[in-house]
Amino acid sequence: MNASAFAHLRASFFESLLDSVLTTDSNGIPSIADRNQKSSIAISQGIVRRLGEIQMATKVAGQISGNSFETNCLEFIEKAFGLLSHLRPGNWGIERVTNPRSDGVARFEQYAHLTALKRLAKVDADLAASLGNDYAVLPDILLFRWPEEDADINRHSPLVDESLARQTGLRRINNPLPLIHASVSCKWTLRSDRAQNARSEALHLIRNRKGGCPHILFVTAEPSPSRLSPLALGTGDIDCVYHVALPELIESVREIDNDEALAMLMMMVEGKRLKDLTDLPLDLAV
User: Fold this and answer.
1) Which of 46, 114, 116, 256 could connect to 106 by a Cys-Cys bridge, CB 3.0–4.6 Å?
2) Helix/strand/coil for 94
3) 104: Cα within 13 Å, side-chain hemisphere
4) pTM
5) DSSP state letters, 240-257
6) Parallel, antiparallel, or unpaired for β 215-220 and 240-243?
7) CA 47 → CA 31, 109, 206, 228, 270, distances in Å?
8) Using the 8-state DSSP alphabet, how is residue 135 labeled?
9) Which residues, in sequence order, are bridge partners of residue 141?
């Protein structure tokens, strides 16, 4: 059987990782591993062994690896989601947020009101203290849809006119701003408070929106089930956590013969809280 398009994209994604941030040091410790945790090292070694030839290199700084990981995720999502236009038609855009001083989500229809809050907070200390940073949401990757012209909406038959449907953001006649469809946070690994930061960002998106809530997704290469669980378990904020190599992760955890780690991992998988990266574009098409 010929490999599917998603299989080719996945292989290309791993090639990019292996050429950039997924490396091993002179002691054979992969760059996704916590060198102070034996199980993390063993699982990481199992993952990279299943992915292909890996180069030896000095582990790059966290910010550099994070930027590279985000870029690779962006390219995968853009290409994979682009293949699903027959399931999710529309005029789509995707971008990586790289400027911390940008308006972030405030330039999108559901969050445009945050621009006014930010402007007021600059001149009102009490308001700024009350709001905190609730208006400053900067996801790593944003997938968005541009509003449609009436000519396209009415392409097959007259559905709308100037007297009706005058509040929906999907009509360009009502709204010139793009609508966020998904916010994707990308973290190469999970250390310290990264899981809590991701949840806080998700809650900001949920609480501050006007209108529909975007998909809120998280992508990681973290090998340790115990570090994945605080983010993956539970519902209400993040839609789902996606691992870049879930089948390889499962096989590697089975290999280390740790029943507790395997049980925790399978609980996340069977509970549909942890999926493979290839599931992500299809979930966006829902």
Assistant:
1) 114
2) strand
3) 22
4) 0.92
5) EEEETTHHHHHHHHHHTT
6) parallel
7) 11, 41, 34, 15, 20
8) T
9) 96, 184
